[in-house]
Give the backbone structure.
Amino acid sequence: MAKKKIALIGGGQIGGVLAQLIGLRELADVILFYIVEDMPQGKTLDIAEASRIDGFDVKLKGTNEYKDIDNADVVIITAGLPRKPGMSRDDLLTTNAKIMKSVAEGVKEHAPNAIVIIISNPLDAMVTLFQKVTGFDHNKVIGQAGVLDSSRFSSFIAWELGVSVKDINAMVLGGHGDTMVPLVRYANVNGVPVMEQLERKYGDATKAKEVMDAMVTRTKKAGGEVVGLLKTGSAFYSPASAAVAMAEAILGDQKRVLPSCVYLNGEYGVDGYYVGVPAVLGENGCERVLEVTLNDEEQAAFDVSVNAVKNLVADMERLGF
Ligand code: APR
């Protein structure tokens, strides 16, 4: 198999971890783009010089020119400012929309056939804007949010139940904001509902619900929790891991079902918006949306989240993007 190429746009905290993870997994050659002279070159040189130690053999290159992303199979975009303490993802809208517009123009010109994974926040708006500027097929423009939000939810459940996180399956739908919808009813430990396990642990349905509610709230605020602790910048290890899982599914045509921010064409009753739902990821990007039956309460929460996405996109359009 010919060696694949992943272009990373944005050489900050997430960009650096992405380059290292892709190298360690020998997933593809890496081109790291950022406008500041020498910085991406320094970062990739540093990572590449560990390759003998870690035993990986891929090409890692830093660049300040978009032309070097030519023929990338996958482009992962982290360009944009991260949140500061107290800031919502939406506060970032204007600044990051300007950056995303320039990035979209660069990717459109130099990597028109790539499948694109976007991490920059506010996520749902940035994905919408990127697709609008490039005109790329909707299935080839995907946002990273659900893989991380679901991993966070799974971690909290594993810690609460004292079992391995590997045996937890839990999913988060909706926008990547405070209205996201962790799906409690479907969360399970190797097929056994988490709620059942919590009720056994506490011997009391009310207490079990309280514990679950706290985990749901923590999941929704998990990004902010990390921002609050770090003081400067936002989460970067976990978003990078999440995007690498998505890139791996796409490059390997794995058909993995990963919660992703994808374009809905009537699924879940939503038409024409990017929203987080389980998607089948393969060589064509988002190949299919997997529909999940929602009860009235879940559907209501999902609708609130979809409305938040719609308002965010409307705000962005009012700002001229
Ligand atoms: N063109 C290309 N890249 C840019 C531009 C631009 N015009 N402006 C900024 N960048 C890149 C830089 O490489 C900068 O270092 O964006 C990077 C952002 O890096 P960090 O500030 O370290 O932010 P990071 O933690 O990587 O988060 C990036 O992902 O999760 C989201 O909210 C987060 O929007 C933020 C993004």
In short: Residues 258 and 278 are 5 Å apart (CA to CA). The pocket of adenosine-5-diphosphoribose is lined by residues 9-15, 34-35, 78-83, 96, 99, 102-103, 119-121, 233-234, 236, 239 (CB under 6 Å). The mean pLDDT is 96. The domain at 146-321 is CATH 3.90.110.10 (L-2-Hydroxyisocaproate Dehydrogenase; Chain A, domain 2).
